[in-house]
Amino acid sequence: xxxxxxxxxxxxxxxxxxxxxxxxxxxxxxxxxxxxxxxxxxxxxxxxxxxxxxxxxxxxxxxxxxxxxxxxxxxxxxxxxxxxxxxxxxxxxxxxxxxxxxxxxxxxxxxxxxxxxxxxxxxxxxxxxxxxxxxxxxxxxxxxxxxxxxxxxxxxxxxxxxxxxxxxxxxxxxxxxxxxxxxxxxxxxxxxxxxxxxxxxxxxxxxxxxxxxxxxxxxxxxxxxxxxxxxxxxxxxxxxxxxxxxxxxxxxxxxxxxxxxxxxxxxxxxxxxxxxxxxxxxxxxxxxxxxxxxxxxxxxxxxxxxxxxxxxxxxxxxxxxxxxxxxxxxxxxxxxxxxxxxxxxxxxxxxxxxxxxxxxxxxxxxxxxxxxxxxxxxxxxxxxxxxxxxxxxxxxxxxxxxxxxxxxxxxxxxxxxxxxxxxxxxxxxxxxxxxxxxxxxxxxxxxxxxxxxxxxxxxxxxxxxxxxxxxxxxxxxxxxxxxxxxxxxxxxxxxxxxxxxxxxxxxxxxxxxxxxxxxxxxxxxxxxxxxxxxxxxxxxxxxxxxxxxxxxxxxxxxxxxxxxxxxxxxxxxxxxxxxxxxxxxxxxxxxxxxxxxxxxxxxxxxxxxxxxxxxxxxxxxxxxxxxxxxxxxxxxxxxxxxxxxxxxxxxxxxx
Length: 655
Prior knowledge:
Strand content: 15-25%
Helix content: 25-40%
Structural class: alpha/beta
Number of helices: 21
Largest sheet: 8 strands, parallel, barrel
Mean pLDDT: 93
Number of strands: 31
Low-confidence stretches: none
Distance between the termini: 41 Å
């Protein structure tokens, strides 16, 4: 076995876990207040158990609906109507050999007044925290001791309730700015009684919750405590204090789960969000160092780590080197739930590694489902369960070898069809291959390389350097044409755009050495801003000019926030409400609200958007009996939409 350490079983309490890979908690917006889950939600959690994770944790279950809820989509564990729904989820996890777990939360001073829970009514209009204070204009009341004791009992009652629902473990959330973290943090905990002051007093709530759960559920029932091993914020506690908290939890918690960050009530909340949930600009395993420090001081309690993990080699190294005893992944298993099975069976090269684009987070918040950019099956497991060979074999011509074309070809081949994939360039992957040298896109290009291999292994006939005209398409004699011709860059109509000092963004990515020491990028969308970050990392001085009033990342707001934070950290300046008027050999003249302004530059780069290859796509509509245009040639969008359409259409062929 290539990964003997990460696949060594571990016994915690009375339970043997089959390996050291745990599915970290994710809540789900498609759950009712009472804890009733749709069949799609059940399948979403079940996929992680099928994929080989040792434990699968449901997130965002609230123990106190009156004072502890933050938003409407958190399951209320003090609402007993949820028993059957929770039992359905736990059964779906358990029957595949994984341990079902659930995250117990209380929002404390981050609670949202007025959130409705049927059976219990509206939450309180009063918000309680460790100490009285005002946060963002909201008055927080100090929590009386009798309420603290009641909350400890609520955690224990919630644990007993989910244990009765079939869950084999609970994870108490003591990090990321939730109630327990608020008590741990002397930045907000100013109490002078036995719940504040010394670290022993501030950790008392966490310790007593663990003890109360064990008293009610049994000493062998595993209790995992998630902490922020470091708050990683100005004025927050450091890893030294995180170590002290962990040492106090020894003998009380069965697993100490070391995350990082604070999260709520801060003016720069998105920066702390990207610490807790590392963005693509962070290195793989960026938060493992906190668990590793805690592990040096905690000898008798297993330590779990989390954050930016999806590479099996790294998971093995973490366990083998003693940095942690357990590795936990949320997005890594959203992207590829089969990661554990693939790694164990020697197919680690087939793992689809999360590129940390936040598409899953954004779709979860905006549309109520965790959809993955690279894996269209995630949270659509039931819809895409029909990938079986078709009874009627068809000849399928896929035109275009980008993201959508490769997915369509692969899915059609898996369905038993004869597939020909034509690409007019000399490589697969589409125009996004121009970003291949960009370090923060490494996982995306590992994915593209994997797709190329899978297409070849599936028996798809790939014809490179082949432009498909209507005449060529008819000569193939296909029953089905899937047109995935993609989009092309828009060239703005600006005087001087054809100058020798002007580059298309794609060319600047490929030939960064042609970019001078000072560059101006026309276009402050995702492409332009990511290019600015890349060129800045190469030592170029970069400015971005954008006609719009603000940065528009499209639907993926969280990735947009990560981009803005990275630009701020790296000194990349964007000028909004600024329109390029003309380019000369020394830079670009722009119209601004203050009048005309000159931006000196050695190189001017344009990244003003894409336009669909509409005419080329339309020309193929009558060249086969079935015709499906997909992806950017319909309308420029994103990788997630391209993959989704490609898989769905290729499955439709077999109906």
